Amino acid sequence: MMYKDDKPIVGITMGDPASIGPEIAVKALLNPAIYELCKPILVGDAHVFADIVARLNLNAVIRPVKSVQDAQYQLGTIDVYDLNNVDIDQLRFGEISAMAGEAAFAAVKTVIELALADEIDATVTGPINKKSINEAGHHFAGHTEIYAHYTNTKKYGMLLVEDQMKVIHVSTHVSLRQACDLVKKDRILEVIELLHNGLISLGETNLKIGVAGLNPHAGDSGLFGTEDDQEILPAVDEAKRRGFDVEGPVPADTLFAKAATGYYGGIVAMYHDQGHIPFKLTGFKWNAEKKQMDSVKGVNITMGLPIIRTSVDHGTAFEIAGKGVASADAMVLAIESAVQLAKYRRKSLLTV
């Protein structure tokens, strides 16, 4: 889409209606800075958003629309691409249900379709509950897999971004046993390239990439496993031959300590928790006295797609849903990242 006035249209999904998803979406769109950056439109059930506005006494008006063209993008009046698929009388905060899963899934599928049709310039997703999605009959491990399926994308990766910490994964939603089996040279090379391209599209200038070892001490020359020498090192060597600024395998306990200082522009993690744990230590701030999060920051970007997708990198937080205490920090950052990616894509198209 060649959008006018340099403001991309950003579609933002509701997430699970029984979660904090609707709350953080509305709170993010009460931030005037968002309307300076883009034209935001929520995608989901308008009744769910209206209920959260009334329940939390938020200073907003929900405006249902049936097409993107009908949106007005005015601060204080929030446009919702209304799917009208939630029975608000049956909805219970913090509960897993097929109804909530179906509504969350429909919002994701719709926003993908809108992006593929060039009706919107970028997509941002709220948190979903994987069990609810599966109870609704949609057997996907998460957002990343849904997007890959409906965009027919074979090579993709999950990139997490928060300040100086930028982490992409060789594998994500699989068992630890499967994750070890997926540490292969070709996949690691693929992910290095995805990360390199992601750093450029985010406007980063530090393109140095650190690749984590799989085993303790990166295998210690085969003493603690062979994957580091047989799969990761050959991938790093080949990446260097292709011109990437990359080093590894580096023992993970050393790698992430250096990454936190900005030494690396980005990190390749071998599996989900290897990347997520240090990342969330950076962006998630727990208040022990209040027994709640003061701030939940971090953006999840799916690299390799033909469309732009960013997301909050936290879960549904069922335990605080509907209580008005959820932080919209991550949603704001996800929208900002989507805008950056949309502007980079537009610039790239104009220079072709």
UniProtKB/TrEMBL annotation:
One of its GO terms (molecular function) is metal ion binding. Keywords: Metal-binding, NAD, Oxidoreductase. The keyword Heme does not apply. It comes from the Bacteria. It is an enzyme of class 1 (oxidoreductase). Its EC number is 1.1.1.262. InterPro entries: PdxA_fam. It holds the Pfam family PdxA. NCBIfam families: pdxA (TIGR00557). This is 4-hydroxythreonine-4-phosphate dehydrogenase PdxA. It comes from Spirosoma aureum. The gene is pdxA.
